[in-house]
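pinned: reference chain
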Amino acid sequence: MVKRVSLWNAGCPVARALDVIGDWWSLLIIRDAFDGGRRFSDFQSGLGIAKGVLSTRLRNLVEREIMETAPASDGSAYKEYVLTEKGQGLFLVIVALRQWGEDHFYSSGEPKSSLVETKTGMPVPRLSLNGSDRQPLDWNNTHVKKCGNESV
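pinned: its structure tokens
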């Protein structure tokens, strides 16, 4: 098996981010943390992930300061995994993936979960990227302004 190459020092912010959260288990753990998962057993049973894989992913998320451990909220001897501010910043990434998945991987009328506003119960509006003039931006009216010599 080929050893995974780290992208941590790549010149591209997307590559660096993927080095931390680029496997599906990490993103699903983060998704479940947004949905209230806090304990190892929550993630393990909810995802059906092998304990060794989960341990590795949680350790990586803690090392990269996406999550932190905290004493159990019920006072038991267990520890809980809590999203840090950096981890909470991934909320828009999870919502964008959710909306993209809804658009491309569900048949018309197929039942699916939905993200709603807690206060109103209304569906969360579609994400959009707008420019400084508040006009919609897309891949064809933006570009990356590179600095230095980037290989990725």
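why pinned: The CA atoms of residues 124 and 134 lie 20 Å apart. Residues 91-105 form the longest helix (15 residues).
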